[in-house]
Design a protein that fits this description.
Length: 136
């Protein structure tokens, strides 16, 4: 299972990097950060954080994967740092009992996630470029 998580993170990292590079940003003070964490509840939490200025407004594209019994539950969204949800992304239940089906379900979810980002690209660029500098 560790291999499956590692391969999923490698794929998500590439999706987020490619998406981050494709964003048109008019403000040079905007920073972007891609990363991941894990804890007792989430076996993987991947994210792309976008922030205005060093201590400014922030929103992120997040992917959370929780394991329960022999399943993974994947959720994704775009939200502000105060928790306000901008858009809910695709979700999936991955049945780990069948590795080939699990990989196929992950591939399907990743495709849907990429489509979600493409569909929300204009909204995200608007959020980045329409927030006046210094608003906190």
């Amino acid at each position: 299972m560790t291999d499956l998580i590692n391969s999923l993170w490698i794929r998500l990292n590439e999706i987020l990097k490619d998406f981050s590079k494709a964003l048109v940003i008019n403000d040079s003070s905007v920073t972007k950060n891609i990363g991941h964490t894990s804890n007792n509840i989430f076996i993987l939490r991947g994210y792309l954080e976008i922030r205005h200025h060093k201590d400014g407004d922030e929103f992120s594209i997040g992917i959370d994967i929780k394991r329960q019994d022999k399943n993974w539950f994947i959720e994704s969204d775009i939200c502000f740092d105060n928790g306000e949800i901008i858009a809910i992304g695709p979700s999936a239940v991955i049945l780990l009992s069948d590795q080939s089906r699990a990989q196929s379900d992950i591939d399907t979810w990743a495709y849907e996630f990429e489509k979600f980002l493409i569909d929300k690209k204009n909204k995200i660029e608007s959020l980045i470029n329409d927030v006046p500098p210094g608003i906190e």
